Amino acid sequence: MHFTLKAVFAQLATVALLATSVAASPVAASVVTDAELDNWLATTDAKLTFVSDFDNNPLADRAALNTRVVYCNRRTNNVCGGDCTVYNGNSKCLNAPDTQCLSATTNVGFCDRAGCGGSCNQYSSCGTRLDNGFCYTPGTRSINVPFT
Q1: Is 37 exposed, middle or buried (CB count within 10 Å of its CB: 0-12, 13-18, 19+)?
Q2: Which residues are paired to 52 by β-bridges?
Q3: pLDDT score, position 148
Q4: How far is 109 from 64, CA to CA, in rounded Å?
Q5: How high is the mean pLDDT of the chain?
Q6: Is the dihedral angle over the CA atoms 93, 118, 130, 125 positive or is it negative?
Q7: To the nearest 10°, the Cα dihedral for 60, 143, 121, 32?
Q8: For residues 72 and 4, is the Cβ–Cβ distance under 8 A?
Q9: In angstroms, rounded to a whole number, what is the distance separating the alpha carbons of residues 44 and 50?
Q10: Phi and psi (nearest 5°) for 98?
Q11: HEC states along the chain?
């Protein structure tokens, strides 16, 4: 087998380019699974309040997948906790004042004004990820849960 210096440099450059491309690619944010959320609920010491929308949502029976959202009022380093609300339902704008962090089983929007207005962002494009799939969301006043 005969190697030329030019071929070796070309191969090294290709490997370096591929390694740089992989390292520079952004990591896609993803929602948490039901199992991951169940584990967090079973092991957290946060004060939990459970709410659902099954009794007064006429679309609940048509929903292919309910969305569960956990939103809490405290963040300590990379941990979300404190007083947390666990919503299980579909297609709703949640009033969520004092929210500091949240997690969800589908992509939700979080907004800095009540009524899902003002400046809104998506959970899937979270800027600061916390432990257990939570997103740091200071200033959140409402959460837009989509119909799934």
Answers
A1: buried
A2: 88
A3: 81
A4: 19
A5: 82
A6: positive
A7: -60
A8: no
A9: 14
A10: 70, 10
A11: CCCCHHHHHHHHHHHHHHHHHHHHCCCCCCCCCHHHHHHHHHHCCCEEEEEECCCCCCCHHHCCCCEEEEEEEEEECCEEEEEEEEEEECCEEEEEEEEEEEEECCCCEEEEEHHHEEEEEEHHHCCCECHHHCEEEEEEEEEEECCC
Integer CA distances (angstroms), 104 to 5, 15, 20, 66, 86, in order: 54, 38, 32, 11, 9
Compute the Cα dihedral for 92, 93, 95, 101 and give only its sign.
positive
Mean pLDDT calculated for residue range 10-34: 50
Give the whole-angstrom CA distance, residue 89 versus residue 87: 6
Strands 79-89 and 109-113: unpaired
Task: For residue 135, list its beta bridge partners.
Answer: 102, 129
pTM of structure:
0.76
In the numeric block, which tokens belong to residue 23? Answer: 């390292």
Mean pLDDT computed over 106-114: 97
- The pLDDT tens digits of the residues spanning 24-56 come to 333 345 789 999 999 999 999 999 999 987 766
In 3D space, the residue among 52, 57, 118, 112 whose CA is nearest the CA of residue 85 turns out to be 52
